[in-house]
Specification:
The structure is a homodimer of 192-residue chains.
Chain A: H1 4-13, E1 18-19, H2 20-28, H3 39-51, E2 55-60, E3 68-73, H4 75-85, H5 97-103, H6 110-139, H7 150-181
Antiparallel strand pairs in A: 1-3, 2-3
The structure holds a DNA duplex (28 and 28 nucleotides).
DNA sequence: AGGCGCATGTAAGCCGTTACATGATTCC
DNA sequence: GGAATCATGTAACGGCTTACATGCGCCT
């Protein structure tokens, strides 16, 4: 069974043939909204998937010191991806830096804490803006409403990101309201 | 500057003295809601933080083949944590398995896709239930409304998790509605 | 007698980040 | 002439997971 990155690459190649370079660009956008990887991870992973028979490639002529390879997913690759989709969902490890920061935010004075939270909010707002642009593009492409078309998969992923970004904005707004209105012990920060 | 795990441990020790074992339990719950780590990661990290002077320990007598150490955060440790809190928020790497799956969900027939999405929904509902229990506990402890008390930090983290879980439920509900109502090409799955 | 909780560590291997390395073509 | 894009790889290092390893005290 391929790794998370392997399945991300299979998911991209299920949409059509692509070179390693094209895959690494698509891993930045749009896949980067929910899974990140750089080319130094992608090229070795493509070699592993090839060895496992889940993808293959043909050499085309390109502009570099090395051969340009155009990758394709194989029937075995499609089967592995479909099998992975249906695996019973084990609890995925969570690593949320913003929440980790919030957990220790009581150590900061009110002014500094507000600064940190407002900076977080700005990032969520920016992310929402970008994803709304993506959704706008997707909604005008054919197949976005047909569950058997790949565009539908793009739409599902964007809808997930939108809801995460909105949840982040609501959360930071809630924190800002708490920090602005509560008086606590009447001081600006932990007692000193 | 300590790693993410290092800052999680500093955040726990800022709340009071603890042994490595106690820290590893607290990393499962409640910190596990937003940052996961096992004891095999925690013990080496505690050694690194000790060497950096951010924490120290005293040996107490315990029940094992090795000495039991009770860790404390130092003044340098508090300073490092406060500095980390205020770092400009660089874009954090995202790795969301559920969204990655949704991205390839168009490969499955409608029935199978619904099964996958309903299983995801069940996990979000369960997580929401657990976090609502946490919130109930926290709200009855003193300091939960005072931004300078550590209980306030606990509350911020739980509020983050609650919003994520609710966003997940909304997202899966939206997908379920789409999969149930749309007819697409009139078939159950990609054309074969 | 066996299992669970307390308590601490090491080792192997994979995953991920950052930096190093090369070289053609195209655009400014 | 220089920067960006196309195109592919390797190396070093640190993070993370899984498994191995030990041993006391308490409860059933």
């Amino acid at each position: 069974m391929p790794s998370g990155l392997g399945c991300a690459l299979l998911g991209l190649l299920a949409r059509g043939e692509q070179t390693g370079y094209e895959l690494s660009r698509r891993m930045r956008r749009p896949v980067g909204f929910f899974w990140t990887a750089t080319h130094s991870q992608i090229y070795p992973e493509l070699a592993r998937l090839t060895e496992a028979g889940l993808i293959d490639f043909e050499i085309v002529d390109g502009a570099g010191p090395r051969e340009t390879k155009r990758y394709r997913i194989t029937a075995d690759g499609i089967a592995a991806l479909v099998e992975w989709l249906q695996l019973p969902g084990r609890q995925q490890p969570v690593r949320d830096v913003d929440t980790l920061r919030a957990y220790s935010l009581w150590l900061l004075g009110r002014t500094d804490a507000l600064g940190v939270v407002r900076a977080m909010r700005r990032r969520y707002v920016e992310q929402l803006r970008v994803l709304e642009g993506e959704l706008h593009e997707i909604e005008h492409t054919p197949g976005a409403h047909d569950p058997s078309q790949m565009t539908f998969g793009n739409r599902l992923a964007v809808e997930s990101g939108l809801r995460s970004a909105r949840a982040g904005i609501e959360w930071t707004d809630w924190m800002i309201a708490r920090l602005e209105t509560t008086t606590g012990s009447g001081e600006d920060g932990p007692g000193e």
